[in-house]
Recover the amino acids of this structure.
C-alpha cells in the first residue's frame, strides 16, 4: 500500500509519499502544519482520503481503514450530449488537492476504482469547456454522478446607426443571464477574449467575444437591451447580431441575427 501526506496550504503545494511497512504503517516526519490530508491507496483494498489534525507536542497516530470501497463513476454531459476525452480530476470535498485524474470514455463517464464513500468534488479544466467544479456525496452506489458542463462558443455584435453605418468606439454591456455575471469581469480575468480587447466596438462597429459559455445573454447600451444566445460549441465566433440605432439616436430599435461567420 502507499500513503501520501499533503499540506492544505495551496501556496505550498507540498506532498510526500511513503510505502507502508509489514505492519501497514507509514511514518512522516517534520510536518510544520496543524493539519494534513492523508491519502492511502492499495489496489485490492481501495482508496481513502482523510483530514488529520496534528499534535503539536509530539507524534500523531491515525488509522485509515481501506474496506474495499466501490467504483465511483462520473458522467460529463452538455445537455443530452455526453462528452468523451475530457480529463476529470477528483478532489477531497472542498479541498484543492487532487486524488487522481481520469478521462471520460465514449459514454462520457470517468471511473475511479475502489473509492471509499465520502464527500468529494470534481473539477474540469478542458479546452472548449467552461471551467467546472462540482461537489457531491458518494454513497457507494453504482449509478454515475451527473456533472453538467457548458461548451464554449462566441458572439459577434455589430452596431450601426439609423443609416446603416457602423458605430465605432461604443461601449457595450454584455451580461450572462445564467451566471448572473458581467462578461467584462471574465474579460478582465482573461477567461474570455474580446476583440478589440475591451467591450467597445471596433472601427467596423463590431465586438467579438470568444470563449463564452454557451447560453442566454443580454447586450445593452443606450438604455435598451437585447436578448442574445451564444450558439453551439463548435461555432467559436458565433452569429452576427446586428443592432440598428433608432432615427432619434436615443436608443437602438432592432436586433436581428445575421449570417454566421
Amino acid at each position: 500500500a502507499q500513503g501520501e501526506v499533503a499540506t492544505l496550504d495551496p501556496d505550498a503545494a507540498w506532498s510526500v509519499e511513503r510505502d507502508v511497512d509489514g505492519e501497514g504503517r507509514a511514518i512522516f516526519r517534520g510536518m510544520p502544519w496543524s493539519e494534513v490530508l492523508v491519502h492511502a491507496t492499495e489496489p485490492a483494498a481501495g482508496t481513502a482520503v482523510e483530514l488529520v489534525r496534528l499534535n503539536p507536542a509530539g507524534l500523531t497516530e491515525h488509522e485509515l481503514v481501506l474496506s474495499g470501497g466501490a467504483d465511483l463513476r462520473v458522467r460529463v454531459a452538455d445537455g443530452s450530449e455526453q462528452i468523451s476525452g475530457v480529463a476529470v480530476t477528483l478532489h477531497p470535498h472542498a479541498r484543492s488537492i487532487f486524488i487522481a485524474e481520469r478521462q471520460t470514455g465514449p459514454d462520457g463517464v470517468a471511473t475511479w476504482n475502489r473509492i471509499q464513500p465520502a464527500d468529494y468534488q470534481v473539477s474540469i479544466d478542458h479546452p472548449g469547456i467552461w471551467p467546472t467544479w462540482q461537489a457531491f456525496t458518494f454513497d457507494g452506489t453504482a449509478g454515475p454522478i451527473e456533472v453538467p458542463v457548458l461548451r464554449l462558443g462566441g458572439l459577434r455584435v455589430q452596431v450601426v446607426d439609423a443609416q446603416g453605418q457602423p458605430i465605432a468606439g461604443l461601449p457595450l454591456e454584455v451580461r450572462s443571464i445564467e451566471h448572473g455575471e458581467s462578461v467584462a469581469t471574465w474579460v478582465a480575468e482573461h477567461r474570455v477574449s474580446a476583440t478589440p480587447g475591451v467591450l467597445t466596438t471596433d472601427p467596423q462597429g463590431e465586438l467579438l467575444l470568444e470563449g463564452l459559455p454557451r447560453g442566454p445573454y443580454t447586450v445593452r447600451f443606450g438604455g435598451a437591451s437585447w436578448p442574445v444566445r451564444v450558439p453551439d460549441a463548435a461555432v467559436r465566433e458565433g452569429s452576427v447580431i446586428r443592432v440598428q440605432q433608432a432615427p432619434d439616436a436615443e436608443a437602438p430599435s432592432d436586433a436581428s441575427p445575421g449570417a454566421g461567420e
User: Anything to note?
Assistant: The first helix runs from residue 183 to 188. The chain is about 0% helix and 50% strand.
